[in-house]
Design a protein that fits this description.
mainly alpha; elongated
Length: 165
C-alpha cells in the first residue's frame, strides 16, 4: 500500500505513539490544584476545559504533519532533521508543563515557552522544505503557543512571587 503510508505502517504508528507519549506526560505534569487556582489570571484566559480539546487537535495535526513530511522525502538526512526537530519540540513541550505546574515557576516557564515557540517555528520551516501542507498543519500549534506565551507572561506580571509552596 503506497501513498499516505508509503513507508509502511511503522512510521505513522511511531509518530502517533510518540505524540501520545508527549501528550500523556505533559498532561500528567499538569496539575490544576489549589496553587494554580490561586493564581491571578487575565479575563481573556481561555477556560480550563478548552485546553484538552485544543491540545488534542494540535497533537493530531502535528502527527499528521510528521507522517506527511516523512513520506515526502526519503532522504536519510531529511528524515534525521525531521526526527530531531520533533524530538526537541516534544521535550520542550513537556518541560513547560513541568516547570509551570510541578515546579510552580511561571517565570521560568515563560523563558521556556519562548524556546518552545522557536522550536515550533523550526518544525514549520523544516517541514516546509519537503511539504508546504505539512508545515501549514503546525500553524495552529504556533498560534496556540503564542497565546499561551502571552498568557504565561501576563500571569508572571499579575503574580510577582514564585517558588513557594
Amino acid at each position: 500500500m503506497n501513498g499516505v503510508l508509503a513507508g509502511g505502517w511503522e512510521p505513522p504508528a511511531l509518530a502517533a505513539l510518540l505524540a501520545l507519549v508527549v501528550a500523556v506526560v505533559g498532561g500528567v505534569a499538569t496539575r490544576t490544584d489549589a496553587w494554580y487556582h490561586r493564581l491571578r489570571v487575565p479575563g481573556w484566559k481561555p477556560p480550563d476545559w478548552a485546553f484538552g480539546p485544543v491540545w488534542t487537535v494540535i497533537f493530531i495535526l502535528t502527527t499528521a504533519s510528521a507522517i506527511i513530511a516523512w513520506n515526502a522525502d526519503s532522504d536519510p538526512a531529511a528524515r534525521t532533521r525531521l526526527v530531531a526537530v520533533f524530538a526537541v519540540n516534544g521535550v520542550l513541550n513537556i518541560a513547560w508543563s513541568v516547570i509551570f505546574f510541578r515546579l510552580r515557576r511561571p517565570d521560568w516557564a515563560f523563558a521556556e515557552v519562548l524556546m518552545l515557540w522557536f522550536s515550533i517555528l523550526a518544525v514549520v520551516f523544516t517541514l516546509g522544505r519537503v511539504s508546504v501542507a505539512a508545515a501549514l498543519l503546525n500553524l495552529p500549534y504556533l498560534a496556540w503557543v503564542s497565546v499561551a506565551a502571552c498568557l504565561n507572561r501576563t500571569i508572571v506580571r499579575l503574580n510577582p512571587r514564585f517558588g513557594g509552596a
